[in-house]
Amino acid sequence: MNANPVLLQKKYSRIIEMFAEQAGLTLDEALGFFYHSLLYQLLKDGLSDLHCMSDGYLAEDLKEEYCQVYR
Fold first, then answer.
1. For a tag site, which of 3, 11, 25, 26 has the least CB within 10 Å?
2. How many CB atoms lie within 10 A of CB 15?
3. pTM
């Protein structure tokens, strides 16, 4: 199932903002990581219904991915 592209862009911005706050990153750093993350690829490609998950859940998932990369 694919989400509306405009709504998906707004969801991305909310996720990035939450992730930046949780991880203690600037918005630019969070944005850079997000667009190179597995989470972004899954959301963009519509391979799963991740876009149906809450923004907070997805931000936490992104933070976990970030911690795995930068341990």
1. 26
2. 25
3. 0.92
